[in-house]
């Protein structure tokens, strides 16, 4: 038996950098660093007599960071959206009762999307009012399935 094939996926250096920045920028450490910069800037206000230059430093710095972050985060969101769309498409394709027409909804016009939203809203209104009943049934089925698997493992 041969070893499983490794899949080498090429991700551009920009995409890797964008993913790293998007992840790092959401951490408490980076928030703390940004907070320290703002506190440091505020503390320096009296020293610089709250001058126009003192204000310009924070305005310019935050504008540049925001401008660059927009593109980095947008790149990451685009990749995540494409990946999620592909996963949803696969679920639709693999589900027997699903309608394959749903695979390209992102390319539909706004009027069609609104009609579809209204259709599913009507279906939701017809759904059972008690979500807990649905969850209880789901949990019961999961428990039954786990018991079946356990019984099968004991037999073997």
Please estimate the helix content: over 70%
How would you characterize the largest beta sheet? none
Question: What best-fitting shape do the alpha-carbon axes yield?
Answer: elongated
Helix/strand/pairing category: mainly alpha
The ordered H/E elements are: HHHHH
Q: Please, how many helices?
A: 5
Distance between the termini: 25 Å
Number of strands: 0
Radius of gyration (CA) equals 26 Å
Global mean pLDDT: 86
What's the structural domain tally? Answer: 2
Percent of sequence in beta strands: under 5%
Would you identify the regions where 5 or more consecutive residues have pLDDT less than 50?
none
Plain-language structure description:
Helix 1 packs across helix 3. Helix content is 76%, strand content 0%. The protein is mostly helical and 156 residues long. The chain has helices at 13-25, 28-47, 52-94, 110-126, 131-155. The two termini are 25 Å apart. It contains 5 helices and no strands. It folds into 2 domains: 7-106; 108-156.
């Amino acid at each position: 038996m041969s070893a499983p094939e490794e899949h080498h996926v090429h991700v551009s250096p920009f995409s890797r950098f964008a993913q790293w920045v998007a992840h790092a920028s959401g951490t408490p450490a980076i928030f703390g660093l940004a907070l320290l910069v703002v506190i440091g800037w505020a503390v320096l206000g009296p020293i610089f007599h709250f001058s126009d230059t003192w204000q310009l430093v924070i305005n310019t710095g935050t504008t540049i960071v925001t401008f660059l972050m927009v593109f980095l985060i947008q790149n990451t969101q685009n990749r995540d959206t494409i990946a999620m769309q592909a996963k949803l498409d696969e679920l639709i394709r693999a589900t027997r009762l699903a309608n394959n027409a749903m695979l390209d909804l992102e390319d539909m016009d706004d009027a069609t999307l609104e009609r579809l939203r209204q259709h599913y809203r009507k279906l939701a209104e017809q759904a059972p009012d008690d979500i807990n009943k649905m969850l209880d049934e789901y949990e019961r089925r999961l428990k039954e399935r786990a018991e079946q698997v356990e019984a099968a493992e004991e037999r073997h």
